[in-house]
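Appendix B. Chain record.
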Amino acid sequence: MISPDRVVGEYGADSLRLYEMFMGPLEAVKPWSMNGVEGVYRFLARAWRMVVDDHAETIGPDAEVQDVAPDQGTG
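Structure tokens predicted for this chain:
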């Protein structure tokens, strides 16, 4: 048995919640996989690095992230 506190301590609550959401309906029986939790953790870290410039003096959006209106092709 794996303690949720241990998973949250190692991977964070967001990783645990997102993994549980991807597993399917809460009332259904499904196998637990720490590899799945780790995969969600890596996905969230990658998404964070795409948006946030964590090497600057203050953490904020990366310079390449811009708030622009969509053009005809993407709207």
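Further analysis of this model is presented in Appendix C.
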